[in-house]
């Protein structure tokens, strides 16, 4: 797990207040995979879905068994929906909205991601 001690940049997006945190360098996240970063005491899983040319961020905790493991999960697609599968019990979660695709009883948080000049930023609500 990477931990960067960087100053947050507060910006206003539409009607919600987000603080953008420098999470890591682009090279810290494996191609078509994920890694965990610690931001404000939260474990955040960041995914570089290279096949789609997209980046995602979610909670690292799988709510099924409360294990901090989603960053190590398998990234793929279910139809057009980008997803991650928990490496332990294979619960699958949408990377766009966090809903569980294999069991309606679970949900994870998702966070906006921006990549700027080789650095990955994650936006968290205040």
Overview of the molecule:
There is one protein chain. The chain has 126 residues and is an all-beta fold. It has strands at 9-13, 16-25, 33-39, 42-49, 54-59, 61-62, 67-68, 74-78, 81-85, 92-94, 110-111, 113-116, 119-125. The chain has a 4-stranded antiparallel beta sheet with strand order 1-2-13-12, with no helix packed on it. Strands 3-4-5-11 form a 4-stranded antiparallel beta sheet, with no helix packed on it. It is globular and about 35 Å long. The two termini are 23 Å apart. The model has no long low-confidence stretch (mean pLDDT 90). It holds the Pfam family Rieske_2. Keywords: 2Fe-2S, Heme, Iron, Iron-sulfur, Metal-binding, Nitrate assimilation, Oxidoreductase. Residues 21-122 form the Rieske domain.
The coarse silhouette is globular
Beta-strand segment tally: 13
Given as residue ranges, the uncertain stretches (5+ residues, pLDDT < 50) are none
SSE order, one letter for each helix or strand:
EEEEEEEEEEEEE
Terminal CA distance reads 23 Å
Main structural class: mainly beta
Tell me the major beta sheet: 4 strands, antiparallel
Pfam families: Rieske_2 (PF13806)
Protein name: Nitrite reductase small subunit NirD
Domain Rieske: 21-122
Organism: Nibrella saemangeumensis
């Amino acid at each position: 797990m990477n931990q960067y001690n960087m100053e947050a940049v507060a910006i206003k997006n539409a009607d919600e207040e987000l603080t953008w945190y420098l999470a890591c360098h682009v090279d810290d996240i494996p191609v078509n995979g994920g890694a965990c970063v610690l931001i404000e005491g939260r474990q955040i899983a960041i995914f570089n879905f290279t096949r789609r040319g997209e980046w995602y961020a979610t909670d690292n905790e799988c709510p099924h068994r409360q294990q901090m493991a989603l960053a190590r999960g398998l990234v793929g697609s279910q139809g057009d929906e980008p997803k991650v599968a928990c490496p332990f019990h294979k619960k699958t979660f949408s990377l766009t909205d966090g809903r569980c695709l294999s069991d309606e009883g679970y949900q994870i948080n998702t966070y906006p991601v921006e990549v700027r000049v080789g650095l990955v930023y994650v936006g968290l609500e205040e």
